Amino acid sequence: MFSGFLGSGKTSALLHIIRQLKEKGIKPAVFMNEIGSMSFDSDQIGNDTPLKEILEGCICCTGSELVEAQLQQLLAEQEFDVLLIETTGAAHPIETLDAVFSPLFADQLEVKGIITIVDSTVLLLQEKLSTMALMLFHEQIKHAHLLIANKMDELTDNEQMQVVQSLQSKNKFASIVQTSHGKFSSNELEKISYQKNASQTTPVKIGTDWPLETSFFRFSAPISIDMMENWLKSLPDTVYRMKGYVPIEGSKYPYVFQYSYGMVQWLPEYVKVPTGIVIIGERLQEISLKHVNLYE
Ligand SMILES: Nc1nc2c(ncn2[C@@H]2O[C@H](COP(=O)(O)OP(=O)(O)OP(=O)(O)O)[C@@H](O)[C@H]2O)c(=O)[nH]1
């Protein structure tokens, strides 16, 4: 998933990666999100790459049904090896992951990670950003699994060093690659140390941030809503989002379940759907799942 501020170089990087993957015989598909109603960037992708777009509105605010439907269609109609997602500059990484990581196809898509393209010239002038923009800028850097420090051609050697140090201080996990015009090697994508591996292999001091993880769990047996809610109360606040279909004792159909920063919502479902939930958070391997009949 390509994240990054407006104009940071996401499309340039995406096009460069698409070219490299094709050369390696890997077939990419692209899911693009642009805020305007006209699509400019997608025209550059080429007809041989499967493409879906959400125009007008940011995927993290549009509602996940539309995103889910588009992704499901892409998975059903097209054959591809890698899905590259380009978000709008206004997208928050957690909200975007939430929109694209659905229990309906979590077993078909493995989330590789978040690649944040950083406009290095903006990083050096970050104090000029509004408070809201600055917060988003930092969140996009903090949750990245790979940081691309772009627009290095605009900076002096000293400024380049400043950029790398600043990124290192904001995210201790991600590798940092310095580039111009988004030109970085697709090998970097394979090197992304994601999820459990990242937290197990990187020594981390208490109190530092952890990389964002996603997991998909299935239920081994129906449970009661009380049991589930007791479990939810026991969770640390580093579990940001959960959603899925939960088999409830005594109910013919599963319940739709949504959890967002401590808030829970249940809705009865009226059709048979496969059960399971997706979880987005940090240090997911530490949460206990057995007593709510969940297994990976
Ligand atoms: N000087 C310089 N310009 C760059 C670099 N990377 C991208 N640009 C330019 O910055 C502008 C934005 O690049 P895009 O790749 O479209 O960036 P984006 O993040 O996809 O932009 P949005 O889709 O508008 O958010 C274009 O005019 C690029 O040519 C770079 O490394 N150096």
What does this structure look like?
There is one protein chain. The chain is an alpha/beta fold. The chain has two domains: 2-192, P-loop containing nucleotide triphosphate hydrolases (Rossmann fold, 3-Layer(aba) Sandwich); 212-295, CobW-like, C-terminal domain (Hypothetical Protein Yjia, Chain: A,domain 2, 2-Layer Sandwich). It contains ten helices and 13 strands. The strands form three sheets. Strands 11-10-9-12-8-13 form a six-stranded antiparallel sheet, covered by helices on one side. A four-stranded parallel sheet has the order 1-5-6-7, with helices on both faces. The two termini are 23 Å apart. The structure holds guanosine-5'-triphosphate. Guanosine-5'-triphosphate is lined by residues 4, 6-12, 41, 89, 150-151, 153-154, 180-182.
